[in-house]
Amino acid sequence: MEALVLGATGGVGGEVARLLAARGWIVKALHRAPQQVAKPGDGMQWLAGDAMNRDDVVKAAQGVQLIVHAVNPPGYRNWGALVLPMIDNTIAAARASGARILLPGTVYNYGPDALPNIREDSPQHPVTRKGAIRVELERRLKDAGVPVLIVRAGDFFGPKTGNSWFAQGLVKPGKEVSAISNPAAPGVGHQWAYLPDVAETMVRLVERSDQLPMFASYQMNGHWDADGTQMTAAIARAAGKPELKASAFPWWLLALASPFVPVFRELREMRYLWRQPVRMSNARLLAVLGSEPHTPLDVAVRRTLQGLGCVTAA
Prior knowledge:
alpha/beta; Rossmann fold; seven-stranded parallel sheet; 13 helices; 14 strands
């Protein structure tokens, strides 16, 4: 089996690519400067190309059975100009090759009316610009006439998730844990997803492609933080400082800096997802897999902090 991974240098794409290679897949990765990112023994065939160039994507996808669409504009920049053209190129490549498209879903698609309990068929009425783009992206996939697999999970954390709420909002990568901030309102639950578990779930579903519908969508339970304090407490334990208490996230700072820092503006848009519980049912997933891959929270958090350079490996 062969797969093309778009976004192989990112958290989701990289994790899925490594796992597919370990399972015996031939993994091709598209990058504008492959010589700069290729590493000996990484199990990938790096190809020169741009996800914004349709011919590059179609050519790279020749002969593959799976296209992992895990590419996003870095730092949330230029979403409106880049996200939809890239998915159109992936759709064109899937039509030419007959491959299934694998997409990591987001909760941006849902507005407050779908909360707190989200199902695969919950109405998608986003209240943010990014959410509206993601809804249109999934609509194009649904109407494309090609096999599609969407796996939606909570906020990612993991050893290679520098561009995440965990790394940008709770701790400071590269520095010993001396303070923890909590974006959640007091008592509000939040759903997290350990990235290696997400990748394992995706690959297990791909391995059951013959059992999936043409347009397949599944949600993960991941790690449910019932009152918004369990994740920060796990960080304190992993850092060897169980007495360390989390402080409130400085939303006011985002408000001040948003006009000047694009990533702050985008993060501020997501505040509604921290002011009320966000939880997804994995019943449909369990019906296919029987169980969901699940790394214990303390183990997952310690590995994440090690990967981010916040604690030393034991």
